[in-house]
Structures are given as C-alpha cells and as structure tokens.
Inverse folding.
C-alpha cells in the first residue's frame, strides 16, 4: 500500500522529524496512545495542525482513541525513509568535519559514515571514531567501490562548489552542505543546507528586535 | 526613523540572511545596483517575492532603477542587528562545542565568543583559538562580570535543559541551541535551534522520495 500523496509541502516534511522525536520520547515513557490535542500541547502545535499534517500521509488517528504511539512512530520512520541504510562520506576534515564525524545522530537517520576526505596531507591518515581521513584524490575510486549515497560538505565556502562538482561527477545524488554558500548542482541532485551563519543572524535579529521593543516601551 | 512594521513573519526574517549574503557577494563583484528581477534570478525567488519581502521593512527600491546594493545591504544588516556587538559563551566543550568555537562566522553576525564551559576536568584549562575552557561552576560569576548576552548549548541532549536553566537563571536571555531537544525557558528568553538530526532526516526523506518516484516510473 502506498500511503503517499503527491506534493506534500516541505513545511510539513520539516515537521515530521519533530513528530518522530516526540513519539520516541513518549515510547520511552511507556505511553502507548495519545490524542491529537495532547500531542499538540507537548509539541506546541494545535490539534488541528497535527491532524492536518498527518492526514497528508493518509491519517493514522482513530476518532475517540487518538494515535497509537508506536504505530505512528513507525509510519513516520517509514515515510522519512530513516530505516533504510545510506552510506555517506564527509569532505573537509577540519574542525567542523571532525565534529560532524563525531556526531552520533547518523544511525538514527539510517546514515552510515564510511570515510572522510581532505586535501591537507597532515590530516590524511588520521582516524576519527574509526573513520579514516583519506586523500581527496582517492575519493572517486572510493565512491565507485563502496556504494556511497551521500556526500557531506564541511569545507570552507571557497572549496565547496568544486567539491560538489566532484561528488556529483562521481554520481553522488545527495549532499548535506555545511559550507556557507548555495551550491549549483544538476537538477536530480538533492541538497540539504545547514547554514549556521543564517541561524546566527536570525538569533541576532530576535535579540535586536527584543531590545528595540523594550526601548520603545 | 523607524522603518520596522510590527508582526513581520519569521519566514521573511529567515530569508534576510540570504539576501544579505548575496548582496555582499554582489558588492565583492563591484555591482552597485540590481533590479528585483535580476536579484530574484540569482536568489531563486520571484521578483514579486523580493519586492514583497523588502516592502515589509519600508521598501528600498526605486522604480526603474532597482536596488542600491550597498544601501540595501546596510539596511538589512541594520534590521538584523548584526552590527551590534553581543558577547556569547559556549557550554559543552566537546567535539561540537570545539567545532563551534572554531567557527569563523561569529563576527559576521556581531557575536564575540568570550569563553567556553564544561564539566569535564580534562577539558577545563585548554584553549581553543584563544578561548579558554572553564569549569561550569565558574559560569555564573563569569556571566556577571563579563556582560554575556547569549549562551550556545553544545551539550548532549541529557544535559541541555539543566544548562538552559543555569543560563537563564544567570539572566541570559538568548540561546543558540545545538542539543537535539526543545528547551523549556521563560517566555522572554529567545531560543534559536540548530537541530542537525532533523536536517538529516529531511535529507533522508528526499532521497527516499526520489527512489520511490524512480521505482514507480
């Protein structure tokens, strides 16, 4: 059975991981079912928002019963595809790349980190959490031989586009990009950006806005 | 003059850093003015989207002339408040905290990193980029004496809430949170989250969705 409807908005998709995280926490607490009202309360959404979101995927709740926590959790995992194994490599093994290599959240999304690559000969050969840092010139062969599905770009802004070109040139169709730039990639390549500077500027805005409000009161 | 209108949506605010980044790139290329159409093209937005967004703040363009790149850049910087200095500390000096300490984007948003804190005695005393890692028990006094405006939480999920409680208890009103959890804070405290696992799950979803599309073709 295919529960998916086409054209689900990215806004809904971006809320699914939060649903998933909270459902896991409910399971850890031994809670087996939850109403959309109560689920909304802990998530900070309205009950109707939750029903609307989950209806995009066919709807799982039962009138008067609420949601079965484990069933809904498993369905969302299935929709997100996080139960499917995907091999990833990190390109750029500096501080950020090493921090990401140490990041413990890969497995929870079905990603397995296979290798890291860098141009810096002082980094090549070092291992981070059993993940070897290799020379970027060996990347093409590694991708061919190891079934890599995704590349994680942790280079500075300047090197990011050429790394993206190399990755897509080797057939990689999914990129998790930490470099503070928008990559140009072929149409069939997926890019998910983590733009830290944009997040920090939004924090700056909110702090500034609050100061402004306080000063005009 | 106060150009701000109340109730600007967060969706608009979250686009401003991107405008700002592209305006800087235009300046670097020596481009002094740009039409909303051309600006839209390089940003991937429509011209009307851009005019609408910038109208929220009073509108800067002139019919038939377009936008003055430097003027618009400076206005957005002003709106974001990134030209105002804000002191920040990192709590949690493990891999992620150290990577964030090495992050070079603070100054661009007006943040100055003042210190790092951890509970691990093996980390206390070490310096990362001239930023000293201190014992978390000295945090309260440091905040009092150093005019700290923002806390950056880089702890595991488990410790994050108690760190948030300590920060807000010391009067910190802004948190940049990297821990994979939603913090409960007093109403007047701003929290900006960077949830890496949610971003990674969205990437997983898009990869899964593409596979699904290809398999049904």
């Amino acid at each position: 059975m295919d529960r998916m409807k086409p054209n689900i908005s990215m806004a809904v998709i971006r809320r699914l991981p939060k649903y998933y995280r909270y459902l896991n926490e409910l399971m850890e607490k031994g809670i087996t079912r939850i109403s959309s009202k109560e689920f909304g309360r802990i998530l900070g959404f309205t009950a109707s928002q939750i029903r609307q979101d989950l209806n995009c995927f066919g709807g799982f709740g039962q009138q008067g019963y609420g949601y079965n926590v484990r069933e809904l959790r498993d369905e969302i995992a299935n929709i997100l595809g996080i139960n499917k194994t995907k091999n990833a490599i990190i390109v750029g093994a500096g501080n950020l790349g090493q921090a990401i290599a140490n990041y413990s959240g890969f497995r929870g999304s079905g990603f397995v980190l296979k290798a890291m690559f860098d141009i810096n000969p002082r980094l090549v050969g070092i291992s981070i959490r059993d993940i070897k840092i290799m020379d970027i010139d060996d990347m093409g062969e590694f991708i061919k031989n190891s079934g890599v599905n995704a590349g994680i770009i942790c280079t500075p802004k300047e090197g990011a586009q050429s790394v993206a070109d190399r990755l897509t040139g080797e057939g990689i169709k999914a990129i998790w990009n930490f470099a503070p730039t928008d990559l140009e990639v072929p149409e069939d390549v997926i890019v998910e950006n983590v733009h830290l500077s944009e997040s920090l500027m939004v924090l700056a805005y909110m702090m500034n806005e609050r100061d402004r409000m306080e000063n005009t009161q």
In short: The first strand of chain A starts at residue 33 and ends at 34.
